[in-house]
Amino acid sequence: MSVRENTSTRLEVDLANGGDTGTTPVAPPVRRRRRSSPVGARVEIAVLVGPALIVFLGFVIFPVVMAAYYGFFSWQGYGPPTDFVGFRNYITIIQDPTFQEALTHNGVIVVLSLVLQGPVAILLALLLNRKLRGQSLIRVLIFVPYVISEVVVGTGWSLMLASNGAVNGMLEKLGLGAFSQDWLSNPDIAIWTLMVIITWKYVGFAVILFLAGLQGIPEELPEAAAIDGASFWQIQRHITLPLLAPTLRIWAFLSIIGALQLFDLVYIIWGQYIASTAGTSTMATYLVANGRNAGNYGYGNAVAVVLFLISLVVALIYQRFVLSRDTEGAITGKGKST
Amino acid sequence: MTALTTPAVALPPANPPAPIKTSRRWGTPVAYVVAVLVIGLMLAPVLFIIIGGFRTNAQITTDPSGWPSVWNIGNYLDVLTGGTFWRLVGNSLIAGFATTLGVVVLGLMASYVLARYRFRGRGILYATFAAGLMFPMTVAITPLYLVVKNLGLMNSLGGVILPQIAFALPTTIIILVPFLKAIPDEIQEAAFIDGCSRLGFFWRMIVPLAMPGVITVGILAFIASWNSYLLPLFILNNDAVFTLPLGVQSFASQYSVDTAKVLAFTSLSMIPALVFFALFERRIVGGLTGAVKG
């Protein structure tokens, strides 16, 4: 049925164009046909988008909106919330030193993630981008920690790092017993331990992302530079890195947001209570510990809103000042990126 | 005179291979050394878990970082013959495949409309889905838990699967829409002329042509579901419906004295994700390449 419509409109258009079968008639018939059966198209649109939209609105947008609503109540989760407290939850959060500590930890994790993972991942990606035997195997192996679940990572590392665990045992054997530490519960060290684990777990993702970005750089550019006598590192510094800058900025964005919302690893390794004394608590572990686990659903939702707003502000600032460079063209981006 | 001209002529062709060759010769061994070092660091903790499973608790206590003096497969056999591990694997497989199927079907249908239909509100629709990237599950977890509870889906895998589908949709749509847009209009034209309806075109042309993108998206959804922790932690409180991550954690706390068995359990639980990833590594990297460029 729609076929007949299609051919007939096509004919009309062809006639209207004076039977010209050049390039122009190809586009118009599509548009024309779509307009000709708006009801059918609308039904198709509804049928195709409907299920996804319902699931998305029901399980993503609605809960987020409700989080904002519940945040204004003192509510234990039974029955509808009635005890409206205005902004009191938010005031409590901002004044709670435990939350301030968690926020500081998040800030430290954001910065250290960028500083530790970025350079390492760039170097690895540059090295792996060259022709190496067994390159695909190397790539798979580097990505292994990223694929393993946080629970497995957390369980394995906590056993290794326990005071009588493998890491201290290894140090002992190497005659470095003096360096053995209480890696997990010493508050001076715990956050660095966490950073090592985070770097180990997520650097593979950065490498894969950068490799993907490097493969998008046309081979002619480094080749031309090599012909002009540029050294390997000069090529990387002046050609590859600037061209990789958009990928770097996207990775940094994902890394920042991920670090702000870090939950699984900390909660699994340090549990809900030790995290704050070991100095590794994050806003998300604070949310779960003081919200659901304490039975204060209203308060937990207010924390979620704060967490979201902080992420949003950071994301907007980043978008405004860093990602916008990508739209300014290669020259402006190139000048600033290094 | 010849001395002057020959270098001038000879230099350009001699020059280009020279820097490339030297840089390769100079760089390659370094690259191998670095690669081996990095792989060693990346694999050491994984190997610790796997090898630790072959030791006995006595060995682990006396020498935590040692090699198994006798390779003891008893821990692995215990885990493999007990029912708990297989029940957890079964639950994780059901959740993983159902999530993947849901994400692919719903995501592909929605992406098809967003990529190839022209209608009012399309931009808003796309922006709505894309905005989902801004809402991590952590933020919505408490109300999400209440929604699932009100739907009567607590302690059922469905209560994990539906939210997982919903939260995977933004990434899926963002990856698939450019993919579907890239399919040339001419193919659509030809299909319509040959008597294909628009939905027929979807099934016969779009689905096969979008396969590479679909596979990438599917793998990402599966791995995310396989490793998912926060949501099952809130929704599933009953051993019978635990997925692997919850199972590993509860096993680790239940048998905290039996370190060797915990290590065996943990290493077995990471095998499926590793196998899955090894099989599809190329697809994942390919999909990311597309996403970075797009």
Automatic annotation (TrEMBL), chain A:
Residues 1-33 are annotated as: Disordered. GO terms for biological process: transmembrane transport. It is found in: Cell membrane. Residues 1-10 have a biased composition (Polar residues). Keywords: Cell membrane, Membrane, Transmembrane, Transmembrane helix, Transport. InterPro entries: ABC_transporter_permease, MetI-like, MetI-like_sf. Gene3D superfamilies: MetI-like. GO terms for cellular component: plasma membrane. It comes from the Bacteria. Residues 103-318 form the ABC transmembrane type-1 domain. It is a multi-pass membrane protein. CDD domains: TM_PBP2. The chain crosses the membrane at residues 41-72, 107-128, 140-160, 189-212, 250-270, 297-318. The keyword Transport applies. Pfam families: BPD_transp_1. PANTHER family: ABC TRANSPORTER PERMEASE PROTEIN, DIACETYLCHITOBIOSE UPTAKE SYSTEM PERMEASE PROTEIN NGCF. Belongs to the binding-protein-dependent transport system permease family. This is Sugar ABC transporter permease. The lineage of its organism: Bacteria, Bacillati, Actinomycetota, Actinomycetes, Micrococcales.
UniProtKB/TrEMBL annotation, chain B:
It is a multi-pass membrane protein. It is found in: Cell membrane. GO terms for cellular component: plasma membrane. The keyword Transmembrane helix applies. Keywords: Cell membrane, Membrane, Transmembrane, Transmembrane helix, Transport. InterPro entries: MetI-like (IPR000515), MetI-like_sf (IPR035906). Residues 89-280 form the ABC transmembrane type-1 domain. It comes from the Bacteria. One of its GO terms (biological process) is transmembrane transport. It holds the Pfam family BPD_transp_1. Its main location: membrane. The chain crosses the membrane at residues 30-54, 93-115, 124-148, 160-180, 201-223, 260-280. Belongs to the binding-protein-dependent transport system permease family. This is Carbohydrate ABC transporter permease. It comes from Cryobacterium lactosi.
